[in-house]
Amino acid sequence: MSNNGTEPMDGKPCPCGSGSKLAACCGRFHRGEPAPHPEALMRSRYSAFSLDLTDYLLASWHTSTRPQHLESGGATRWVRLEVLDASEEGEGDSACGRVHFRATFREGRRWAVLEENSRFVQEAGRWVYLDGSPSVTRLKPGRNDPCPCGSGGKFKGCCGRGSR
Hints:
- By secondary structure, the chain is of the alpha+beta class.
- Helices cover about 15% and strands about 35% of the residues.
- It is globular, with a radius of gyration of 16 Å.
- The two termini are about 30 Å apart.
- The mean pLDDT is about 90.
């Protein structure tokens, strides 16, 4: 089942890692405001994956590459986003952009990183996700390794508590 609203969560920090509240960051795009550039759209899509907003994900996907439907994220817990590079060129419906990012996630006790070079284009005056070249790397954090969530703490004292 898709989730269409973020209202109960708007006062919480935005999942994209900006440090802003969801309402002032990605939540406004989830509610219909157009993203001003590809990085903002990519961050809002990451947040939508975190919040399981499948309707938003489909609506922000280019019509030529959009799947018919998306399954709920289920057991996937998105924990950290790192934008490595972002660019855009052109104007209007001929504009295009790229965003290179890393997204760390957890499924049960398994950790992984999705790294993708995503392409974005303008469609009817709005930025939309076109496609990307993703790769997934499994992580095996040790007790004394830095926590993959990006907290700065050791894995054993952060997300590793009780997971072994």
